[in-house]
Write a sequence for this structure.
């Protein structure tokens, strides 16, 4: 309903009433202003804290006396807060050097680790004056922790090929001793027995698995056994039991049963080799040349949390040193690839002398890996029969 009041007195009265100060109204406005001031205070205080953290913490984030950058604080900040990238500072599989922060991995998205404000700007869109529609380039995504992948997904390879030709002596007759087959000193077996090689340089099939023991890792074991026994008097057991057919994921459990069988009979060996091959496609990066012939490179895979690792590392270091002295380039430039646990320690917890060796890759030819077997045998003979 609408009421029209014509009386001036009444209108004046109403006007005066409206213009009269209201305690309730003033009190409400006061509360609003007070709450606004509180919000502004806490906003300014929070920004001040962020600014101080950004100024102080980078100064204290220098890890060592040589000034090498180890800003793990920002690693954790990025891992927990920054949605566009995930960084790991996990050093799980490095045995030769500490992992370093890859600044380039962040620069392409506009994050400068030395400038913490860039992190805030990247997270709070309205602070960024630049166009935020940049798409992520897949070619710039780095995997800093590859060790969660399966064995067949990992490439443990040098980045460059070795085109030089090394001229070196293959045999050392002075190392030969009397052969005693009753007391074998070396055991060779294969957890992944069917890991295969190319039949020739013209073989384009790229066969990765085969039960044919003239083209899988067994052929390398045969060469090592023959060389050690005939040239150096070192008795070898070469077990060719197939462990990786059927239940592939339990190959190491099955090969562990095989290993335990021999340890029960002979108690110990001077050297136990679980012989494998790598899975990198480009063989040029894992191939060298010695005496004019192509030779596949080799490397060790270890589990550094297994209780025998200390003694195994000494043995590996000695073998690598001998290999580098006799045949530089035969061992990969990073000859040790480390896991913490592996699959049941890859059975390396069974003996101080238990090693896992990888020879070449599936694109190496059978002849190339057989050549490796010859030169690797000399290295082993130097370790077992040479001067201590």
């Amino acid at each position: 309903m609408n009421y029209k009041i014509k009386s001036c007195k009444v209108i004046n009265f109403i006007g005066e009433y409206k213009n009269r100060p209201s305690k309730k109204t003033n009190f409400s406005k006061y509360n609003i202003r007070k709450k606004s001031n509180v919000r502004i205070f806490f906003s300014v205080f929070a920004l001040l804290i962020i600014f101080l953290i950004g100024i102080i913490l980078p100064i204290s984030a220098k890890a060592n006396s040589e000034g090498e950058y180890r800003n793990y604080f920002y690693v954790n900040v990025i891992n927990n807060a920054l949605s566009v990238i995930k960084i790991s500072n996990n050093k799980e599989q490095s045995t030769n050097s500490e992992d370093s922060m890859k600044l380039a991995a962040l620069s392409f998205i506009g994050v400068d680790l030395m400038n913490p404000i860039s992190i805030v700007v990247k997270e709070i869109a309205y602070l960024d004056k630049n166009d935020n529609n940049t798409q992520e380039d897949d070619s710039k995504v780095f995997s800093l922790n590859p060790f969660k992948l399966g064995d067949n997904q990992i490439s443990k390879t040098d980045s460059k090929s070795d085109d030089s030709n090394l001229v070196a002596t293959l045999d050392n007759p002075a190392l030969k001793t009397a052969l005693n087959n009753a007391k074998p000193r070396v055991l060779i077996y294969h957890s992944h027995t069917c890991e295969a090689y190319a039949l020739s340089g013209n073989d384009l099939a790229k066969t990765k698995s085969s039960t044919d023991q003239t083209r899988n890792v067994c052929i390398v074991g045969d060469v090592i056994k023959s060389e050690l026994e005939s040239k150096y008097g070192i008795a070898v057991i070469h077990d060719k039991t197939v462990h990786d057919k059927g239940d592939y994921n339990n190959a190491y459990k099955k090969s562990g049963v095989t290993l335990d069988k021999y340890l029960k009979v002979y108690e110990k060996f001077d050297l136990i080799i679980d012989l494998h091959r790598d899975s990198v496609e480009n063989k040029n990066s894992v191939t060298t040349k010695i005496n004019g012939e192509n030779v596949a490179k080799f490397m060790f895979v270890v589990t550094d949390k297994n209780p025998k690792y200390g003694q195994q590392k000494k043995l590996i270091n000695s073998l690598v040193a001998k290999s580098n002295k006799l045949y530089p380039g035969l061992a990969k430039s990073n000859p040790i690839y480390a896991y913490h646990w592996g699959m049941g320690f890859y059975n390396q917890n069974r003996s101080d002398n238990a090693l896992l060796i990888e020879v070449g890759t599936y694109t190496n030819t059978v002849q190339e890996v057989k050549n490796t077997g010859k030169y690797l045998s000399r290295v082993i003979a130097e370790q077992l029969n040479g001067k201590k």
